[in-house]
């Protein structure tokens, strides 16, 4: 071929290839625009499922905004506040070839990063597989195959008073696989939590930051046995498993969206956008006909379990998984007197000779006793209450137990705690009427969350109190004034019994405001001045008598609201190991109280205090006596005290009647109230 002809042929080929690429590019762009136009015609961005996938909510002004805070969760720069732009950019991104930017090893193409968005858009717009970018999503496919989602359970970990992050309880999601050979504890659980370390943070600071969104929240995936070890064994929290009646495809949709949430962070709020709230979101993605997030201003984990139970047919089974502590308690309650005596002797000093050197006795179930002691050793070690030399004792007892046959039947475990869905509502309204030495009064109050000491313990930790954002106000008939009686930003009370199994410390923490009564010194000074005036200026006697009468009719005492922070520590005592209901508890504590008001020369004082509690619990009836004494006399002002006695009758889990009396320095009152919880 001549050189000139050869050159023309090469040019022709190059132009043809170039034209082919241009045509393909034009065709790809046209297809993107075609699908975007179809999405606009259908107003697909208004579809509830799209709103759920991007976690959009309406603002007060009616605008959309996503609860997700990280930009990596969106494909459009305006995606967080514009569902339409995010949808159109998603269509373009899914159909456009792209490669990882330099230095980003974990980069994924949007098709792989957002598989559920891609699936839904493809379904709604009938997009052909060949129209999407050609990418290999190996990481996602391997993850999804490992998970193999088929079913789901909501797991509730009971309230735990020794960690600020857990005083409301905790919920997580367990994904059940379709693998019949995989043991349940090897399945995976989904956890959403604040990305902070409560162990290295002051409890009050952690609680306040958690209330106001001071921490980011993230999703994480763990083998279920890790969570069982964390909650059941280390923290001794009972687990309640609520199996959801979801179809396999619903669970698979939820799992694909869970992968997408790996690119998202959310502001974490203890009372609303918490672990339970975002699990609501996942369940709504699985079944969009549910509207779980729309039903409560506050989202307390125990209350969310009730929401699942209220959905007809959603929960098909409930399973109880007792903690190590609960298992031990149950075993101790099944012991006879002789077995209990040996147990107590061993647990006093770790000397197992009381057990292994004992002559055979038909009244002693040696293997049962050995198992209980082994569990108790493990429990005390997890609590940090186990001497190092007990490690060797534990090994010796294991060896001894291995040579024994089982001489008892394990009939299973009844619940030491009760499932949260049977408990009262966490929010409350108080309505009261009463009388005092300052006159009659009408009162009202509110509690955002979650439980006070007079409430029924059903579904909650017995002998505990958790008050977040609660207050009581009163209108006194004589003074014609509305008075803030008390306010609690956070008030925690834990009366965990001290016994041979655990030397738990009881505690009380309160930050907020309370009330006290002071003598009105100004009136006394005015009286003395007028008495001298009556002697020195008899011509003004009529005016003086009028003023003295006016003062005698005025208030001699003034009730003021004090800002305060207080805490006490001590021990509580209750017979936990006997069979039957636990009716009585006594607690003694000591600590300090910081009080601030303008009545003090120093404005604020810090005083030592002592406190005691006595509780009598008879199911529907309950009595609580609390005593506090504050030694303010170290500052030259009178000591103060507060003695409160309350009786409660539960008409229903959410309806209570109360009769209460209180005595303080210069003040006494009695009141009757109705409490509604929701």
Automatic annotation (TrEMBL):
<dbReference type="InterPro" id="IPR057165">
    <property type="entry name" value="DUF7843"/>
</dbReference>
<feature type="domain" description="DUF7843">
    <location>
        <begin position="43"/>
        <end position="124"/>
    </location>
</feature>
<feature type="domain" description="Lnb N-terminal periplasmic">
    <location>
        <begin position="140"/>
        <end position="309"/>
    </location>
</feature>
<protein>
    <recommendedName>
        <fullName>DUF4105 domain-containing protein</fullName>
    </recommendedName>
</protein>
<feature type="domain" description="DUF7840">
    <location>
        <begin position="418"/>
        <end position="672"/>
    </location>
</feature>
<dbReference type="Pfam" id="PF25225">
    <property type="entry name" value="DUF7843"/>
</dbReference>
<dbReference type="Pfam" id="PF25222">
    <property type="entry name" value="DUF7840"/>
</dbReference>
<feature type="signal peptide">
    <location>
        <begin position="1"/>
        <end position="26"/>
    </location>
</feature>
<dbReference type="InterPro" id="IPR025178">
    <property type="entry name" value="Lnb_N"/>
</dbReference>
<dbReference type="Pfam" id="PF13387">
    <property type="entry name" value="Lnb_N"/>
</dbReference>
<dbReference type="InterPro" id="IPR057162">
    <property type="entry name" value="DUF7840"/>
</dbReference>
<keyword id="KW-0732">Signal</keyword>
């Amino acid at each position: 071929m001549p050189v000139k002809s050869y050159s023309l042929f090469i040019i022709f080929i190059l132009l043809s290839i170039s034209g082919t690429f241009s045509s393909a590019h034009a065709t790809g762009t046209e297809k993107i625009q075609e699908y975007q136009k179809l999405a606009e015609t259908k107003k697909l961005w208004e579809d509830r499922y799209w709103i759920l996938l991007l976690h959009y909510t309406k603002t007060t002004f009616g605008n959309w905004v996503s609860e997700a805070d990280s930009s990596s969760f969106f494909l459009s720069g305006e995606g967080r506040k514009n569902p339409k732009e995010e949808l159109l950019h998603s269509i373009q991104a899914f159909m456009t070839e792209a490669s990882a930017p330099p230095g980003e090893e974990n980069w994924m193409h949007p098709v792989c990063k957002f598989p559920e968005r891609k699936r839904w858009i493809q379904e709604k717009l009938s997009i052909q597989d060949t129209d999407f970018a050609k990418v290999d999503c190996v990481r996602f496919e391997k993850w999804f195959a490992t998970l193999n989602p088929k079913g789901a359970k909501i797991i509730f970990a009971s309230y735990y008073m020794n960690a600020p992050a857990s005083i409301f309880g905790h919920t997580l999601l367990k994904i059940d696989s379709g693998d019949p050979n995989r043991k349940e504890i090897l399945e995976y659980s989904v956890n959403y939590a604040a990305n902070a370390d409560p162990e290295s943070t002051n409890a009050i600071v952690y609680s306040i930051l958690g209330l106001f969104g001071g921490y980011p929240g993230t999703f994480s995936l763990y083998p279920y046995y890790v969570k069982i070890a964390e909650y059941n064994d280390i923290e001794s929290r009972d687990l309640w498993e609520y199996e959801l009646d979801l179809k396999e495809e619903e669970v698979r949709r939820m799992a694909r969206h869970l992968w997408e949430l790996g690119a998202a962070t959310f502001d974490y709020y203890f009372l609303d956008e918490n672990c339970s709230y975002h699990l609501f979101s996942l369940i709504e993605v699985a079944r969009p006909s549910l509207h779980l997030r729309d039903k409560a201003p506050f989202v307390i984990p125990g209350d969310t379990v009730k929401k699942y139970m209220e959905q007809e047919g959603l929960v098909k089974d409930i399973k109880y998984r007792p903690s190590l502590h609960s298992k031990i308690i149950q075993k101790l309650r099944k012991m006879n007197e002789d077995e209990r005596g040996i147990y107590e002797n061993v647990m006093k000093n770790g000397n197992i000779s009381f057990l292994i050197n004992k002559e055979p006795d038909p009244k002693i179930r040696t293997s049962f006793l050995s198992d209980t002691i082994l569990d108790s050793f493990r429990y005390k070690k997890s609590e940090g209450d186990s001497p190092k030399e007990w490690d060797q004792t534990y090994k010796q007892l294991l060896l001894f137990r291995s040579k024994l046959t089982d001489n008892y039947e394990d009939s299973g475990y009844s619940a030491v705690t009760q499932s949260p869905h049977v408990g009262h509502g966490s929010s409350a309204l108080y309505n009261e009427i009463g009388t005092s030495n300052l006159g009659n009064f009408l009162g009202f109050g509110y509690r955002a969350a979650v439980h006070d000491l007079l409430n029924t313990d059903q579904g909650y930790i017995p002998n505990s109190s958790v008050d977040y954002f609660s207050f009581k106000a009163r209108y006194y008939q004589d003074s014609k004034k509305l008075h803030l009686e008390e306010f609690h930003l956070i008030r925690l009370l834990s009366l965990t019994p001290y016994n041979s199994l655990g030397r738990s410390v009881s505690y009380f923490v309160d930050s907020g405001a309370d009330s006290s009564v002071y003598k009105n010194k100004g009136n006394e000074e005015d009286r003395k001045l007028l008495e001298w005036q009556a002697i020195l200026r008899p011509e003004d006697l009529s005016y003086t008598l009028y003023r003295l009468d006016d003062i005698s009719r005025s208030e001699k005492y003034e009730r003021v609201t004090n800002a305060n922070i207080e805490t006490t520590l001590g021990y509580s005592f209750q017979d936990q190991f006997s069979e039957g209901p636990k009716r009585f508890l006594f607690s003694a504590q000591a600590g300090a109280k910081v009080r601030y008001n303008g009545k003090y020369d120093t404005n604020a004082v810090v005083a030592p205090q002592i406190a005691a509690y006595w509780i009598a619990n008879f199911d529907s009836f309950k009595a609580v006596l609390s005593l506090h004494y504050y030694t303010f006399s170290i500052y030259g002002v009178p000591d103060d005290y507060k003695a409160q006695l309350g009786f409660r009758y539960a008409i229903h889990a959410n309806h209570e009647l109360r009769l209460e009396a209180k005595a303080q320095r210069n003040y006494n009152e009695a009141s009757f109230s109705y409490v509604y919880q929701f």
